[in-house]
Design goal:
The chain is an alpha/beta fold. The chain has 4 domains: 135 residues, no CATH class; 71 residues, no CATH class; 197 residues, Rossmann fold (3-Layer(aba) Sandwich); 83 residues, Phosphorylase Kinase, domain 1 (2-Layer Sandwich), CATH 3.30.200. 36% of the residues lie in helices and 16% in strands. It is built from 16 helices and 20 strands. The strands form 5 sheets. Strands 13-12-11-10-9-18-19-20 form an 8-stranded mixed sheet. It has a 4-stranded antiparallel sheet with strand order 14-15-17-16, covered by helices on one side. The chain has a 3-stranded mixed sheet with strand order 3-1-4, covered by helices on one side. The chain is globular. The termini are far apart.
Length: 526
Protein backbone atom coordinates (compact mmCIF):
# COMPACT_ATOMS: atom_id res chain seq x y z
CA UNK A 1 0.00 0.00 0.00
CA UNK A 2 2.78 2.40 0.95
CA UNK A 3 4.72 1.64 -2.23
CA UNK A 4 1.66 2.27 -4.36
CA UNK A 5 1.07 5.58 -2.59
CA UNK A 6 4.68 6.57 -3.16
CA UNK A 7 4.48 5.71 -6.85
CA UNK A 8 1.29 7.73 -7.27
CA UNK A 9 2.77 10.66 -5.34
CA UNK A 10 5.94 10.54 -7.43
CA UNK A 11 4.00 10.45 -10.70
CA UNK A 12 1.81 13.35 -9.64
CA UNK A 13 4.77 15.40 -8.49
CA UNK A 14 6.63 14.93 -11.74
CA UNK A 15 3.94 14.69 -14.41
CA UNK A 16 4.06 18.39 -15.23
CA UNK A 17 6.96 20.81 -15.34
CA UNK A 18 7.06 22.99 -12.18
CA UNK A 19 6.63 26.16 -14.22
CA UNK A 20 3.14 24.95 -15.10
CA UNK A 21 2.14 23.02 -11.99
CA UNK A 22 2.93 25.26 -9.06
CA UNK A 23 0.54 27.86 -7.69
CA UNK A 24 2.51 30.69 -6.12
CA UNK A 25 0.66 32.29 -3.22
CA UNK A 26 2.41 35.63 -2.87
CA UNK A 27 2.26 37.68 0.30
CA UNK A 28 0.73 41.12 0.58
CA UNK A 29 1.73 44.19 -1.39
CA UNK A 30 5.43 44.97 -1.44
CA UNK A 31 6.78 41.64 -2.64
CA UNK A 32 7.74 41.98 -6.27
CA UNK A 33 7.28 38.75 -8.19
CA UNK A 34 7.83 38.43 -11.94
CA UNK A 35 4.77 37.61 -13.98
CA UNK A 36 4.41 35.63 -17.18
CA UNK A 37 2.78 36.17 -20.58
CA UNK A 38 -0.97 35.75 -20.74
CA UNK A 39 -2.04 32.10 -20.79
CA UNK A 40 -5.24 30.27 -19.74
CA UNK A 41 -5.74 30.75 -16.02
CA UNK A 42 -7.66 29.08 -13.21
CA UNK A 43 -9.03 30.80 -10.12
CA UNK A 44 -8.55 28.82 -6.93
CA UNK A 45 -10.34 29.17 -3.54
CA UNK A 46 -9.26 28.36 0.00
CA UNK A 47 -5.84 29.96 -0.23
CA UNK A 48 -4.28 31.83 2.74
CA UNK A 49 -5.17 35.50 3.14
CA UNK A 50 -2.39 36.73 0.90
CA UNK A 51 -2.94 39.75 -1.27
CA UNK A 52 -0.21 40.30 -3.85
CA UNK A 53 -1.31 38.74 -7.12
CA UNK A 54 0.67 37.86 -10.18
CA UNK A 55 -0.16 36.31 -13.51
CA UNK A 56 1.09 32.76 -13.06
CA UNK A 57 1.30 30.16 -15.84
CA UNK A 58 -1.22 27.85 -14.18
CA UNK A 59 -3.23 29.89 -11.73
CA UNK A 60 -4.33 33.27 -10.51
CA UNK A 61 -4.94 33.46 -6.76
CA UNK A 62 -7.63 35.82 -5.45
CA UNK A 63 -7.38 35.05 -1.72
CA UNK A 64 -9.41 37.96 -0.31
CA UNK A 65 -12.31 37.27 -2.70
CA UNK A 66 -13.54 33.66 -2.28
CA UNK A 67 -14.22 32.09 -5.65
CA UNK A 68 -15.22 28.75 -7.06
CA UNK A 69 -12.51 26.93 -9.00
CA UNK A 70 -13.38 27.58 -12.63
CA UNK A 71 -11.52 27.78 -15.94
CA UNK A 72 -11.00 31.30 -17.19
CA UNK A 73 -10.89 32.31 -20.85
CA UNK A 74 -8.47 35.22 -21.04
CA UNK A 75 -7.37 37.61 -23.75
CA UNK A 76 -5.11 36.65 -26.61
CA UNK A 77 -1.35 36.46 -25.87
CA UNK A 78 -0.75 39.89 -27.35
CA UNK A 79 -3.10 41.53 -24.85
CA UNK A 80 -1.72 43.34 -21.81
CA UNK A 81 -1.51 41.58 -18.44
CA UNK A 82 -4.00 44.08 -17.04
CA UNK A 83 -6.49 43.11 -19.74
CA UNK A 84 -5.91 39.46 -18.86
CA UNK A 85 -6.44 40.19 -15.19
CA UNK A 86 -9.68 42.00 -15.98
CA UNK A 87 -10.87 39.17 -18.24
CA UNK A 88 -10.03 36.60 -15.56
CA UNK A 89 -11.91 38.44 -12.84
CA UNK A 90 -14.90 39.13 -15.09
CA UNK A 91 -15.31 35.56 -16.27
CA UNK A 92 -15.14 33.70 -12.93
CA UNK A 93 -18.13 33.39 -10.56
CA UNK A 94 -17.67 34.69 -7.02
CA UNK A 95 -19.40 33.10 -4.03
CA UNK A 96 -20.06 35.72 -1.35
CA UNK A 97 -21.66 35.18 2.04
CA UNK A 98 -24.73 37.19 1.05
CA UNK A 99 -25.31 35.00 -1.98
CA UNK A 100 -23.88 34.78 -5.51
CA UNK A 101 -22.65 37.89 -7.27
CA UNK A 102 -20.85 38.18 -10.56
CA UNK A 103 -17.13 38.72 -10.36
CA UNK A 104 -17.59 41.40 -13.02
CA UNK A 105 -19.56 43.49 -10.53
CA UNK A 106 -16.90 42.95 -7.90
CA UNK A 107 -14.18 43.91 -10.37
CA UNK A 108 -15.98 47.15 -11.20
CA UNK A 109 -16.39 47.86 -7.50
CA UNK A 110 -12.87 47.09 -6.34
CA UNK A 111 -10.41 47.34 -9.24
CA UNK A 112 -9.00 50.41 -10.93
CA UNK A 113 -8.47 49.18 -14.48
CA UNK A 114 -8.05 52.56 -16.15
CA UNK A 115 -4.30 52.41 -16.75
CA UNK A 116 -2.99 50.90 -19.96
CA UNK A 117 0.37 49.20 -19.53
CA UNK A 118 2.17 47.61 -22.43
CA UNK A 119 2.09 43.90 -23.25
CA UNK A 120 5.55 43.41 -21.73
CA UNK A 121 4.52 44.65 -18.30
CA UNK A 122 3.62 42.51 -15.29
CA UNK A 123 0.84 43.48 -12.92
CA UNK A 124 0.89 43.40 -9.13
CA UNK A 125 -2.37 43.87 -7.25
CA UNK A 126 -2.68 44.70 -3.58
CA UNK A 127 -5.99 43.66 -1.99
CA UNK A 128 -6.98 44.72 1.54
CA UNK A 129 -8.26 42.04 3.91
CA UNK A 130 -11.99 41.42 3.96
CA UNK A 131 -13.85 41.66 7.28
CA UNK A 132 -14.66 38.11 8.40
CA UNK A 133 -18.36 38.88 8.65
CA UNK A 134 -18.92 40.58 5.32
CA UNK A 135 -17.14 38.53 2.68
CA UNK A 136 -16.47 41.78 0.79
CA UNK A 137 -13.34 43.84 0.27
CA UNK A 138 -13.33 46.98 2.43
CA UNK A 139 -11.52 49.36 0.07
CA UNK A 140 -10.13 49.62 -3.43
CA UNK A 141 -6.94 47.67 -4.03
CA UNK A 142 -4.03 49.13 -5.93
CA UNK A 143 -2.57 47.88 -9.18
CA UNK A 144 1.04 48.53 -10.09
CA UNK A 145 3.03 47.84 -13.26
CA UNK A 146 6.16 45.86 -12.50
CA UNK A 147 9.05 44.26 -14.36
CA UNK A 148 9.03 43.00 -17.97
CA UNK A 149 7.48 39.57 -18.31
CA UNK A 150 9.74 36.60 -19.15
CA UNK A 151 8.73 33.69 -21.35
CA UNK A 152 6.70 31.13 -19.39
CA UNK A 153 9.00 28.15 -19.81
CA UNK A 154 12.13 30.11 -18.92
CA UNK A 155 11.47 29.53 -15.22
CA UNK A 156 11.43 25.73 -15.51
CA UNK A 157 14.75 24.14 -14.48
CA UNK A 158 16.29 21.95 -17.15
CA UNK A 159 16.17 18.92 -14.90
CA UNK A 160 12.45 19.46 -14.28
CA UNK A 161 11.79 19.82 -18.02
CA UNK A 162 13.73 16.67 -18.78
CA UNK A 163 11.91 14.84 -16.00
CA UNK A 164 8.60 15.89 -17.53
CA UNK A 165 9.69 14.75 -20.99
CA UNK A 166 10.85 11.40 -19.65
CA UNK A 167 7.60 10.80 -17.83
CA UNK A 168 5.50 11.97 -20.77
CA UNK A 169 7.40 9.60 -23.02
CA UNK A 170 6.74 6.56 -20.85
CA UNK A 171 3.27 5.71 -22.29
CA UNK A 172 4.50 6.26 -25.86
CA UNK A 173 7.46 3.97 -25.28
CA UNK A 174 5.17 1.35 -23.76
CA UNK A 175 2.98 1.47 -26.87
CA UNK A 176 5.88 1.13 -29.33
CA UNK A 177 7.94 -1.58 -27.66
CA UNK A 178 7.12 -5.30 -27.49
CA UNK A 179 4.91 -6.22 -24.56
CA UNK A 180 7.72 -7.92 -22.65
CA UNK A 181 9.80 -4.73 -22.73
CA UNK A 182 7.08 -2.11 -22.48
CA UNK A 183 6.39 -2.11 -18.75
CA UNK A 184 10.05 -2.24 -17.60
CA UNK A 185 10.99 0.52 -20.04
CA UNK A 186 8.07 2.74 -19.01
CA UNK A 187 8.83 2.20 -15.33
CA UNK A 188 12.49 2.95 -15.98
CA UNK A 189 11.67 6.26 -17.63
CA UNK A 190 9.26 7.14 -14.83
CA UNK A 191 11.97 6.32 -12.29
CA UNK A 192 14.42 8.53 -14.19
CA UNK A 193 11.88 11.36 -14.10
CA UNK A 194 11.50 10.88 -10.36
CA UNK A 195 15.27 10.87 -9.91
CA UNK A 196 15.55 14.19 -11.73
CA UNK A 197 12.91 15.67 -9.44
CA UNK A 198 14.64 14.31 -6.34
CA UNK A 199 17.99 15.80 -7.37
CA UNK A 200 16.83 19.14 -8.79
CA UNK A 201 18.41 22.02 -6.88
CA UNK A 202 16.40 25.12 -5.95
CA UNK A 203 17.56 28.20 -7.82
CA UNK A 204 20.72 29.68 -6.32
CA UNK A 205 21.14 27.00 -3.62
CA UNK A 206 24.04 24.61 -4.15
CA UNK A 207 23.38 22.05 -1.42
CA UNK A 208 24.46 18.51 -2.24
CA UNK A 209 22.27 16.31 -4.38
CA UNK A 210 22.46 13.57 -1.75
CA UNK A 211 20.86 15.95 0.76
CA UNK A 212 18.14 16.90 -1.72
CA UNK A 213 17.46 13.24 -2.53
CA UNK A 214 17.08 12.37 1.18
CA UNK A 215 14.84 15.35 1.83
CA UNK A 216 12.56 14.76 -1.16
CA UNK A 217 12.35 11.05 -0.49
CA UNK A 218 11.21 11.94 3.04
CA UNK A 219 8.65 14.30 1.49
CA UNK A 220 7.27 11.45 -0.62
CA UNK A 221 7.04 9.24 2.45
CA UNK A 222 5.23 11.99 4.37
CA UNK A 223 2.84 12.53 1.46
CA UNK A 224 2.09 8.80 1.54
CA UNK A 225 1.16 8.99 5.23
CA UNK A 226 4.43 7.65 6.64
CA UNK A 227 6.03 9.51 9.57
CA UNK A 228 9.11 11.16 8.07
CA UNK A 229 11.12 14.30 8.82
CA UNK A 230 13.56 16.46 6.92
CA UNK A 231 17.23 15.45 7.18
CA UNK A 232 19.67 17.73 8.95
CA UNK A 233 22.10 19.79 6.93
CA UNK A 234 25.70 18.65 7.05
CA UNK A 235 28.25 21.38 7.75
CA UNK A 236 29.13 21.31 4.05
CA UNK A 237 25.51 21.77 3.01
CA UNK A 238 25.09 24.54 5.57
CA UNK A 239 28.05 26.36 3.99
CA UNK A 240 26.51 25.83 0.56
CA UNK A 241 23.23 27.32 1.79
CA UNK A 242 25.10 30.38 3.07
CA UNK A 243 26.74 30.66 -0.34
CA UNK A 244 23.48 31.98 -1.74
CA UNK A 245 24.01 35.18 0.25
CA UNK A 246 27.69 35.87 -0.41
CA UNK A 247 26.95 38.13 -3.36
CA UNK A 248 23.32 38.89 -2.51
CA UNK A 249 22.89 39.31 1.27
CA UNK A 250 19.33 39.30 2.62
CA UNK A 251 17.62 42.60 3.34
CA UNK A 252 15.58 41.23 6.23
CA UNK A 253 15.58 38.34 8.69
CA UNK A 254 12.24 37.38 10.27
CA UNK A 255 12.62 35.36 13.46
CA UNK A 256 10.53 33.54 16.00
CA UNK A 257 11.61 34.36 19.56
CA UNK A 258 11.11 31.36 21.88
CA UNK A 259 13.62 28.56 21.23
CA UNK A 260 14.73 30.34 18.06
CA UNK A 261 16.37 33.59 19.19
CA UNK A 262 16.29 32.94 22.95
CA UNK A 263 16.13 29.63 24.85
CA UNK A 264 12.69 28.82 26.29
CA UNK A 265 13.25 25.15 27.10
CA UNK A 266 12.14 25.88 30.68
CA UNK A 267 8.77 27.14 29.42
CA UNK A 268 9.19 30.51 31.15
CA UNK A 269 11.11 32.29 28.43
CA UNK A 270 14.26 34.36 28.78
CA UNK A 271 14.88 38.05 28.46
CA UNK A 272 17.22 39.07 25.68
CA UNK A 273 20.93 39.08 26.56
CA UNK A 274 23.41 41.90 25.85
CA UNK A 275 25.14 39.63 23.32
CA UNK A 276 21.92 39.10 21.37
CA UNK A 277 21.12 42.82 21.48
CA UNK A 278 24.56 43.53 20.05
CA UNK A 279 23.88 41.02 17.28
CA UNK A 280 20.62 42.80 16.40
CA UNK A 281 22.44 46.14 16.35
CA UNK A 282 25.13 44.82 14.00
CA UNK A 283 22.52 43.31 11.68
CA UNK A 284 20.75 46.66 11.42
CA UNK A 285 24.03 48.51 10.83
CA UNK A 286 24.87 46.07 8.01
CA UNK A 287 21.56 46.76 6.24
CA UNK A 288 19.90 43.50 7.31
CA UNK A 289 16.59 44.38 8.96
CA UNK A 290 15.90 42.22 12.07
CA UNK A 291 12.18 41.52 12.59
CA UNK A 292 10.37 39.24 15.04
CA UNK A 293 7.19 37.17 14.64
CA UNK A 294 6.18 35.57 17.93
CA UNK A 295 3.13 34.05 19.59
CA UNK A 296 3.78 36.13 22.70
CA UNK A 297 1.84 39.35 23.32
CA UNK A 298 3.59 42.71 23.31
CA UNK A 299 2.30 43.59 26.78
CA UNK A 300 2.01 40.55 29.01
CA UNK A 301 3.77 41.47 32.23
CA UNK A 302 7.18 39.85 32.75
CA UNK A 303 6.66 37.42 29.86
CA UNK A 304 5.50 39.97 27.27
CA UNK A 305 7.79 41.07 24.47
CA UNK A 306 7.99 44.63 25.81
CA UNK A 307 9.72 43.42 28.97
CA UNK A 308 11.67 40.55 27.43
CA UNK A 309 13.01 42.39 24.38
CA UNK A 310 11.76 45.78 23.24
CA UNK A 311 12.25 47.83 26.43
CA UNK A 312 15.82 46.50 26.70
CA UNK A 313 16.85 47.82 23.29
CA UNK A 314 18.72 51.05 22.76
CA UNK A 315 16.29 53.66 21.33
CA UNK A 316 18.35 53.82 18.14
CA UNK A 317 17.80 50.08 17.58
CA UNK A 318 14.07 50.46 18.25
CA UNK A 319 13.71 53.15 15.57
CA UNK A 320 11.21 51.78 13.04
CA UNK A 321 11.53 48.29 14.54
CA UNK A 322 8.80 45.91 13.36
CA UNK A 323 7.48 43.09 15.54
CA UNK A 324 4.50 40.77 15.06
CA UNK A 325 2.89 39.42 18.23
CA UNK A 326 0.02 37.13 19.15
CA UNK A 327 0.84 34.64 16.40
CA UNK A 328 0.14 37.19 13.65
CA UNK A 329 -2.77 38.93 15.37
CA UNK A 330 -0.96 42.26 15.60
CA UNK A 331 2.03 43.90 13.92
CA UNK A 332 3.67 46.94 15.54
CA UNK A 333 6.12 49.45 14.10
CA UNK A 334 8.04 51.57 16.60
CA UNK A 335 8.41 55.31 16.07
CA UNK A 336 11.18 57.34 14.46
CA UNK A 337 12.74 57.92 17.88
CA UNK A 338 12.13 54.39 19.12
CA UNK A 339 8.92 55.24 20.93
CA UNK A 340 6.35 52.52 21.52
CA UNK A 341 3.30 52.78 19.22
CA UNK A 342 -0.06 53.45 20.84
CA UNK A 343 -1.79 50.89 18.60
CA UNK A 344 -0.78 48.16 16.15
CA UNK A 345 -0.19 49.16 12.55
CA UNK A 346 -1.90 45.94 11.47
CA UNK A 347 -4.33 43.79 13.44
CA UNK A 348 -6.87 41.00 13.09
CA UNK A 349 -10.49 41.09 14.23
CA UNK A 350 -10.70 39.64 17.79
CA UNK A 351 -12.76 36.53 18.49
CA UNK A 352 -16.41 37.25 19.24
CA UNK A 353 -18.23 35.91 22.30
CA UNK A 354 -20.32 33.73 19.97
CA UNK A 355 -17.17 32.19 18.45
CA UNK A 356 -15.71 31.54 21.88
CA UNK A 357 -18.93 29.86 23.01
CA UNK A 358 -18.91 27.54 19.99
CA UNK A 359 -15.29 26.59 20.67
CA UNK A 360 -16.03 25.81 24.33
CA UNK A 361 -18.98 23.61 23.35
CA UNK A 362 -16.83 21.70 20.84
CA UNK A 363 -14.23 21.10 23.54
CA UNK A 364 -16.88 19.66 25.87
CA UNK A 365 -18.08 17.34 23.08
CA UNK A 366 -14.50 16.25 22.30
CA UNK A 367 -13.89 15.53 25.99
CA UNK A 368 -16.96 13.30 26.16
CA UNK A 369 -16.05 11.47 22.94
CA UNK A 370 -12.42 10.85 23.93
CA UNK A 371 -13.00 10.07 27.61
CA UNK A 372 -10.78 12.97 28.69
CA UNK A 373 -12.45 14.51 31.80
CA UNK A 374 -13.32 18.20 31.48
CA UNK A 375 -11.81 18.67 34.94
CA UNK A 376 -8.40 17.81 33.43
CA UNK A 377 -8.17 20.88 31.21
CA UNK A 378 -8.38 24.61 31.79
CA UNK A 379 -9.03 27.59 29.53
CA UNK A 380 -6.76 30.53 28.74
CA UNK A 381 -8.39 33.09 26.45
CA UNK A 382 -6.94 36.16 24.72
CA UNK A 383 -8.38 38.56 22.16
CA UNK A 384 -7.30 36.56 19.11
CA UNK A 385 -6.84 33.06 20.51
CA UNK A 386 -8.27 30.47 22.84
CA UNK A 387 -6.05 27.90 24.54
CA UNK A 388 -6.99 24.71 26.38
CA UNK A 389 -4.15 23.63 28.69
CA UNK A 390 -4.40 19.87 29.23
CA UNK A 391 -3.37 17.52 32.00
CA UNK A 392 0.08 16.12 31.27
CA UNK A 393 -1.10 12.74 30.05
CA UNK A 394 0.19 13.00 26.50
CA UNK A 395 -1.38 9.87 24.96
CA UNK A 396 -4.81 10.89 26.30
CA UNK A 397 -4.19 14.51 25.29
CA UNK A 398 -3.41 13.46 21.70
CA UNK A 399 -6.67 11.49 21.55
CA UNK A 400 -8.60 14.53 22.82
CA UNK A 401 -6.86 16.82 20.31
CA UNK A 402 -7.74 14.47 17.44
CA UNK A 403 -11.41 14.46 18.47
CA UNK A 404 -11.43 18.25 18.79
CA UNK A 405 -9.84 18.77 15.36
CA UNK A 406 -12.47 16.48 13.77
CA UNK A 407 -15.25 18.58 15.29
CA UNK A 408 -13.52 21.87 14.43
CA UNK A 409 -12.82 21.07 10.79
CA UNK A 410 -15.21 22.78 8.41
CA UNK A 411 -17.08 24.71 11.11
CA UNK A 412 -14.87 27.79 11.08
CA UNK A 413 -13.44 29.89 8.26
CA UNK A 414 -9.85 29.79 6.97
CA UNK A 415 -8.91 32.70 9.25
CA UNK A 416 -9.06 30.25 12.18
CA UNK A 417 -6.28 27.82 12.92
CA UNK A 418 -6.18 24.97 15.45
CA UNK A 419 -2.97 23.29 16.61
CA UNK A 420 -2.00 20.77 19.28
CA UNK A 421 1.35 21.40 20.92
CA UNK A 422 3.55 19.31 23.20
CA UNK A 423 6.36 21.40 24.76
CA UNK A 424 9.86 19.89 24.39
CA UNK A 425 10.24 19.64 28.16
CA UNK A 426 8.30 16.56 29.30
CA UNK A 427 7.20 18.14 32.58
CA UNK A 428 5.28 20.91 30.79
CA UNK A 429 1.61 20.54 29.89
CA UNK A 430 0.42 20.05 26.31
CA UNK A 431 -2.24 22.36 24.95
CA UNK A 432 -4.69 22.96 22.11
CA UNK A 433 -4.54 26.47 20.65
CA UNK A 434 -7.26 27.98 18.48
CA UNK A 435 -6.13 31.24 16.89
CA UNK A 436 -7.90 33.76 14.72
CA UNK A 437 -4.52 34.60 13.24
CA UNK A 438 -1.52 32.76 11.86
CA UNK A 439 2.06 33.66 11.13
CA UNK A 440 1.05 33.83 7.48
CA UNK A 441 -0.78 36.99 8.49
CA UNK A 442 2.33 38.10 10.39
CA UNK A 443 4.40 37.88 7.20
CA UNK A 444 1.73 39.74 5.24
CA UNK A 445 1.54 42.55 7.79
CA UNK A 446 5.32 42.85 8.02
CA UNK A 447 5.76 43.06 4.26
CA UNK A 448 2.94 45.57 3.99
CA UNK A 449 4.63 47.87 6.50
CA UNK A 450 7.96 47.52 4.70
CA UNK A 451 6.27 48.37 1.40
CA UNK A 452 4.79 51.50 2.96
CA UNK A 453 8.35 52.54 3.83
CA UNK A 454 9.38 52.04 0.21
CA UNK A 455 11.15 48.71 0.79
CA UNK A 456 9.65 46.18 -1.61
CA UNK A 457 11.25 42.87 -0.68
CA UNK A 458 11.57 39.88 -2.96
CA UNK A 459 11.18 36.52 -1.21
CA UNK A 460 14.80 35.73 -2.07
CA UNK A 461 15.85 38.75 0.02
CA UNK A 462 14.35 37.32 3.21
CA UNK A 463 15.65 34.63 5.59
CA UNK A 464 13.18 33.15 8.09
CA UNK A 465 14.18 31.48 11.36
CA UNK A 466 12.00 29.25 13.54
CA UNK A 467 12.02 26.09 15.61
CA UNK A 468 8.58 24.55 14.96
CA UNK A 469 8.06 23.46 11.37
CA UNK A 470 6.08 20.32 12.19
CA UNK A 471 2.80 22.03 13.16
CA UNK A 472 0.62 23.90 10.68
CA UNK A 473 -0.01 27.45 11.80
CA UNK A 474 3.19 27.89 13.79
CA UNK A 475 6.49 28.65 12.07
CA UNK A 476 5.38 26.47 9.15
CA UNK A 477 2.95 29.23 8.20
CA UNK A 478 5.87 31.60 7.61
CA UNK A 479 7.56 29.10 5.31
CA UNK A 480 4.37 28.66 3.30
CA UNK A 481 3.78 32.41 3.14
CA UNK A 482 7.14 32.99 1.42
CA UNK A 483 7.97 29.87 -0.62
CA UNK A 484 10.85 31.70 -2.31
CA UNK A 485 12.62 32.54 0.96
CA UNK A 486 15.30 30.47 2.65
CA UNK A 487 13.93 29.13 5.95
CA UNK A 488 16.40 27.96 8.60
CA UNK A 489 14.88 25.55 11.13
CA UNK A 490 16.62 25.19 14.50
CA UNK A 491 14.16 22.77 16.15
CA UNK A 492 14.26 19.01 16.56
CA UNK A 493 12.31 18.15 13.40
CA UNK A 494 10.81 19.72 10.29
CA UNK A 495 8.19 18.67 7.77
CA UNK A 496 10.11 17.53 4.65
CA UNK A 497 7.25 18.70 2.40
CA UNK A 498 8.24 22.31 3.13
CA UNK A 499 10.70 22.57 0.27
CA UNK A 500 12.26 25.87 1.38
CA UNK A 501 12.94 24.72 4.98
CA UNK A 502 16.47 23.57 5.85
CA UNK A 503 17.05 21.83 9.19
CA UNK A 504 20.10 23.13 11.04
CA UNK A 505 22.89 20.73 12.04
CA UNK A 506 22.47 21.93 15.65
CA UNK A 507 19.27 22.45 17.67
CA UNK A 508 18.55 25.71 19.48
CA UNK A 509 18.96 29.49 19.45
CA UNK A 510 22.76 29.35 19.32
CA UNK A 511 22.39 27.88 15.84
CA UNK A 512 20.31 30.92 14.82
CA UNK A 513 22.96 33.27 16.21
CA UNK A 514 25.74 31.41 14.39
CA UNK A 515 23.89 31.60 11.07
CA UNK A 516 23.26 35.34 11.58
CA UNK A 517 26.95 35.87 12.32
CA UNK A 518 27.80 34.04 9.10
CA UNK A 519 25.36 36.26 7.18
CA UNK A 520 27.18 39.30 8.56
CA UNK A 521 30.51 37.84 7.44
CA UNK A 522 29.05 37.16 3.99
CA UNK A 523 27.77 40.75 3.91
CA UNK A 524 31.25 42.09 4.61
CA UNK A 525 32.82 39.76 2.02
CA UNK A 526 34.72 37.64 4.54
Amino acid sequence: MILSRLLIASLLLNSVSPAFSQTVTAPRAGVQLPGTPVVPLTLQPNLPSASALRLAPASLALPALPVVKAPVAVAAPQASPRAALQAAVESAPAMLKGGEASAKTEAARHFDLSAKPSASDAVEASIPSAPASSGLLPSAPSLAVKTPVPAPRANAPRSAKLGGWLLAGSPLLAALLPAAWALPAALGLAAAAGAYALLRRPEGIEVSRSYLARKRWAALLAAAGVAAFAPRLSEGDRSALLGRFRNHPPKAVIMDYDDTFMDNSSGKGLVVTPERLDLLQRLKAAGIRPIFATNRPLDGGPHGMSNMLMDRMDPALREGFIISVGGGAEVYRYGEKGEKPAAPAFSETPMSLEERGRIQEMMRQASAASGFPSSDWREDGKDHEFTFVLKNDRPAARKLAAEFEKLFKGRFGPEFNVTYKEPPKESLEPYIRIAKATKTRAIEGILKLLAEEGTALKPSEVVIFGDDFTQPGYDSAMARALPGAVVYAVGKDADPRLDNVYLSPVVGPDSTAAFLEDLLRARSGR
